[in-house]
Amino acid sequence: MNHNARCFMAIEIENLVSRKHLMGGAINASALGRFGVVIPWSDEKLRAFIRLVRYLHYLRYAEKNTFDTSNLLIVTKEQMDTAVLEILEQRIENVAQ
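^ that's the sequence the OP posted. Answer follows.
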């Protein structure tokens, strides 16, 4: 994926930003991390991220200049919360044993 990453995982949390800044956050996460993760803080931003990724894929299909976001994951705040809680629960169980 991103063989010239600056970090393993770059996370962008987006809330009250314009579409231009939303695109910048997605591109930064994808460009800087082996895996880029964007966390939209509202359903509106989630839909905007999905439209953005679809648009960038369409540009590739149409053979236009684009940015490869194949290493970008869109994760809702609820999904991130669940993942973190499950990891913490596992660690607590391991320590208790």
